[in-house]
Write a structure and sequence with these properties.
This is E3 ubiquitin-protein ligase. By secondary structure, the chain is α+β, with helices and mostly antiparallel strands. The chain has five helices and twelve strands. It folds into two domains: 25 residues, no CATH class; 129 residues, Apoptosis, Tumor Necrosis Factor Receptor Associated Protein 2, Chain A. Strands 3, 5, 6, 7, 10 and 11 form a six-stranded mixed beta sheet that branches.
Length: 184
């Protein structure tokens, strides 16, 4: 199905659907969580789409930035999104608050590369929460936006913490996460 965009595999019809679901040449969906955006396009068009259709997303330059999630006490499911640009690539930083069990909310923080799975293997990210006497750190390789936030959460490739932990590190309802991107 994706031969016109570069896939050169020829598969038996029974293997085709499984491959198409993970094919690097399939169109990229809008990676912005929490929106009902139906956009699809090439990898090269993703950043242009985000800058034009999702203008509220802030982009910071540099390998080491602070991702500030404001009003973490908002009720219900909430997504905070920011972009980080370094090493000639763009990374999407996501903090997602979801209710996991009745009345029990969890936060999921992860980094996605606006790029392929192969490109994502070349990077590491570190997320740090700092408090007066506490520090919580998570280090991992970013997922590709082809996989998305839900795959990162489902595979536990993210920093997970509960509301009590969020409050331990928050300042007046705002949570600052230090984000450092490095090359492998």
């Amino acid at each position: 199905q994706y031969a016109t965009t570069g896939c050169s595999l020829t598969l038996h019809h029974t293997e085709k659907p499984k491959h198409e679901a993970i094919c690097e040449y399939r169109p990229y969906s809008c990676p912005c969580p929490g929106t009902s955006c139906d956009w699809e396009g090439s990898l090269e068009a993703v950043m242009s789409h985000l800058m034009h259709a999702h203008k509220s997303i802030t982009t910071l330059q540099g390998e080491d930035i602070i991702f500030l999630a404001t009003d973490i006490n908002l009720p219900g499911a909430v997504d905070w999104v920011m972009m980080q640009s370094c090493f000639g690539h763009h990374f999407m930083l996501v903090l997602k608050k979801q209710e996991k069990c009745e009345g029990h909310q969890q936060f999921f923080a992860t980094v996605l590369l606006i790029g392929t799975r192969k490109q994502a293997e070349n990077f590491q990210y570190r997320l740090e929460l700092h408090g007066s006497c506490h520090r919580l750190t998570w280090e991992a390789s970013p997922c590709s936006i082809h996989d998305g936030v839900h795959v990162a959460i489902r595979s536990s490739n993210c920093l997970v913490f509960d509301t009590a932990t969020a409050h331990l590190f928050a300042d007046n309802g705002n949570l600052g996460i230090n984000v450092t991107i490095s090359m492998c």
